Amino acid sequence: MSIDTIHDLFEHGLEDIYHAEHRLLEVLSDLEENTEREEIASAFAEHREKTEGQIDRLEEVFEMFGEPPEKEECEAVEGLIEEYEEFTSMDPNQEVMDYHNMAAAEKTEHYEIAAYGNLIPLADQLGMDEAADLLEENLREEQDALEELKELTEGFEIDAIPAE
Ligand SMILES: [Fe+2]
Fold first, then answer.
1. Distance 164 CA to ligand 1 centre (A)
2. How far is the CA of 112 from the centre of ligand 1 (A)?
3. What is the CATH number of domain 6-155?
4. What is the pLDDT of residue 160?
């Protein structure tokens, strides 16, 4: 498939983030399970619920676009997941694991924020105002999630991790 138009570009981006959100739904469960600190684990649980809503919104966007919801493998998020799994396979202690889980989640938020930020002007350009609004809602949730993760990172008692 060649990608030559705004229509194609939008479709490609939508399928990419649709795939990414599904993968993150799975990974957020792992993050929650692998995190001991209640506050952090519940942030993952909460974001997992939000992610379900984001997927529903994306399906609405596909409908407005007149295409069935399809996934295009998001290599970037797959790469982040692979990196995360490699790290956990090195058997870090719980403190390190909790800290790293936040860091891994933050990385995905940056990707998602960029993805939605890039899709919104395309939807606008295609005259899909309602779709743009839905994407904007997803973007706002990702931004909120990133802020929350940043606060948790700042509040993390880093000296619980041995320096050397
Ligand atoms: Fe998301």
1. 35
2. 6
3. 1.20.1260.10
4. 87
- Domains of the chain, by residue range, sit at 6-155
Contact between 128 and 98 under an 8 Å Cβ cutoff? The reply is: no
Nearest of 160, 143, 164, 156 to residue 40 by alpha carbon: 156
For residue 65, what are its two tokens?
């676009």
Distance from residue 69's CA to the centre of ligand 1 (Å) = 16
State pLDDT tens for residues 28-75: 999 999 999 999 999 999 999 999 999 999 999 999 999 999 999 999
- Name 83's Cβ contacts closer than 8 Å, sequence gap at least 6: 104
Residue type, position 65, single letter: F
Taking a C-beta distance cutoff of 8 angstroms, is the pair 44, 105 a contact?
Answer: yes
CA of 162 to the centre of ligand 1 (A): 33
Percent over 90 (pLDDT), the chain: 95
